[in-house]
Structures are given as C-alpha cells and as structure tokens.
User: What shape does this take?
Amino acid sequence: MTQSTLKQLSRQLAAKEVSSLELATQYLGRIEALNPALNALVTVDRAKTLAEAAAADARIAAGNAHALTGVPIIHKDLFCQQGWKTSCGSKMLDNFVSPYSAHVVEQCQAAGMVTLGRANMDEFAMGSSNENSFYGAVKNPWDQNAVPGGSSGGSAAAVAARLTPVATATDTGGSIRQPASHCGVTGIKPTYGVVSRYGMVAFASSLDQGGPIAQTAEDCALMLNVMAGFDQRDSTCLERAREDYARDLNQPLAGLKVGLPREYFAAGLSADVARAVDEAVTVLKQQGAQVVDISLPNTELSIPAYYVIAPAEASTNLSRYDGVRYGHRAAEYKDLVDMYEKTRAEGFGSEVKRRILVGSYVLSHGYYDAYYLKAQKIRRLIANDFKAAFEQCDVILGPVAPTAAFDIGAMNDDPVQMYLSDIYTLSVNLAGLPGMSVPAGFSANGRPIGLQIIGNYFGEAKMLNVAHQFQLATDWHSRAPVL
Assistant: This one.
C-alpha cells in the first residue's frame, strides 16, 4: 500500500478496503526502517498519528468523509502545527512547539488527513541542497551520495522513498520544483497568493508560496484543492472563487502551444537534462501540441535580482528571532545587546547568517536605491518578459535545473555556484507565476531529471492537464528507488 498514489489510497479508504489506522501503521513502520539513513523527517510522534488515524476512521464510518480523509501526509517543518515542534531546520527554533496551526495545516486537518511527521529542510528554507539543516543533510533516496535538492528536500525525499504519499512544501526560488526534480517526484508551486502563507514561517514574504509534492500530477491537483483558498489572516492571499484543479486533467493537448525559451537551452545546461527535456517535448508533440520559439531575455538577471530581494526580506523577517519572546536564547550574556548578539550567533547557521548580512547591507542607507530598488525594477522586467511570452503560447517548458542532483558536499565551498543552479526557477517566483516539475528521465548515473512546466497567472489547471497527459504517456513518475 505504501507504493500507492494519493488517488489510489483515497479510493481504497472510501471502499473500506483498508483503514486509516492500517495505512498509518504501515507508513510509520517504513519511516522507522528508512528514515535513519535518509534523514527526511525530523519529528515523528506515533501516538499523535495513530490518534488522528482513528479519528479519520470514525469519520469515514459515520459517512461524512472528505475525498482525502484518512490519507497520510507529512508537513514541511515550517508550517506551524499546534502541539508539534516547528523548527524550520534551525537551532533557533529547536525548542519551539507551535501553539497554533498554519492555514494549510488547518485545511488538511479539516479534510481529515493524518500527519505522519515533520519534514527536514534547509534552515529557514535557505538553500538548494538540504545540507543547511541543523539536523543534518537529507539523503537522496535514488543515490544517498547525492543531495535531494532544497529547501523542501525532506518533503521530496519522503515522497520518493514512499514514506508518505504526499507532503506539503514551499517554494521561494524553486524549493518545490528543484527537489521534486532531483528526487523524481511531482511538485507544483501555485500562483503567488493562491495558498495562504498564514502560519508558514517567513523567509522572503513576497516570494514564498506553499504547494504539494506527490507522485503524480493528479495527486497534486487533489492536494491543491485542499490547500488553496482565501484566508483573511494573510493580507497577500487572493480572494477568488474556489477552483477544482483536477477539472481539466483529461483534456486533449491538440492545439496546445508550448513555448521553449531559447535562454533555457544555452551554455551551462547539461547534455543529460537537455536530452530529457527534448524527449519530453517530443512526447507532447505526439499528443498534438505545437512548439513555439520564445524569448525571456532577462532570465540571466533573475539570479542577482533574487539574491538582493530575498535576503533583504529575510533580514527583516528574521529580526524577530532575538531570544526575547520564543526560540533559542544564549545561556550567558552581559546585557540585552550581548544577549541579542550571542543568541543570533548561536542560533543561526552559516547560510542564514550570510543572507542576513547581504540583506541588511542592501537595505542600508546609501545602498537601498543602488541595489534593492534596482532589483525590484528588474523584477518588473522579468514579469513583462513572461507577459509577452504568454501572448504566443499557453505554457512554457524547460529544465528545472542545469544538472541532475549533485553530490553532497560538492558545492559547500562555493555558495555562488549553488545559487546559479536556480537559474531556471527563480524568475517564476519573481514574477509570481505558477510552475511545476514532473519526472522526465534520468541522468547517465541514474539520478532523476525533472521537466519544468510554467503557466500563466492562475493557470494551474492547464499546467496540471499538460503534466497529467505527459504522465499518461510516460512512466517516469511511477518509478521508485530500491531501498
């Protein structure tokens, strides 16, 4: 049963072929066996999980179940969850047990989903490899010498290893799509504002967006139906009519216009990834899609713009971790200022400190105009590039990352090189567009490769349609690592 998709488990539970308690017990057993090596989860509470499963079974028996009632789920450890430790992968919050739940968690609980545990992540979602966690690096289930991607590497690795059928995740600059690509699973980042950020510990508030990671596009559609929706507690959450994101899954692709940005296929793209994307495009063409050559001329500026805007917002958001109200506090200090300094020095890891320093610098007097405002202007240019492109095509296809997953430790001494691995994902966040990754092949050394699908604003249903049709014609998404 642990190999089943979300959709299959939903049917089995509804037909009472399996109970939620049986499912939860099986997944917990798999977690106990495999997680010590993978380090994908940082918190597991068997008693709480089984209690939720028993409640789900009672709800199913009473006949008032949701489609996903009783289905297990893992939450990325930056979604606050009442009564569970919410650490954000940081020593700073290692002792923080949340007194309330994020909107996303509330939605999953309202649907009757059962929490298996909390997924490991890069500290405060800052990283592309999941090596920056206070709890240690997550291992890629396909090759434990490789990174799973980040910052949602724990969520992606857990789904790939079949420790859960689905996991929540967040994407600030590619942190759903890149780990989904590296772990051979499906992940979607919706349009900014479609999923509430309430109770989601902030990294960069104008970029952060929650979404699901699962085995298939169909599963992601079912999860997005649960996660999306207006929440007045988040001022950036969009008030709009609810959608059924699965409504167009079975629409034919005849006449679909697929844009291929020439900037995505230039120097720096590995031959393995280029081949996988090219083969995926061929599959879609066989299904009736038309290929359109497009340009996104400001793509290369997305990295400098992102690494000004995101650290600037992070430096502001992380100023709240001062040892006064909650979280880690230094044991010894002379005065208030000394407490601040020692608490933050002890509580934050090196990557978080690096981004706080960069962010504070670009927001400082004399540099705000030179860096931060210019980055925001570039952000507008990038959004305009996409606007022009979507006048020519329905969706945009390309790679998720320039290469398949790299080895653990390979880029520890060169953070800038790691930043460059986000070249194809950052611009989507800067523009606030939806994007997703679907499995599309393997590298020569057997590591997964993802295909990125980018949609226009609120084009999630169209993206999911393209992904689902691609998955009906291929089997990359159904392959699982041997563990």
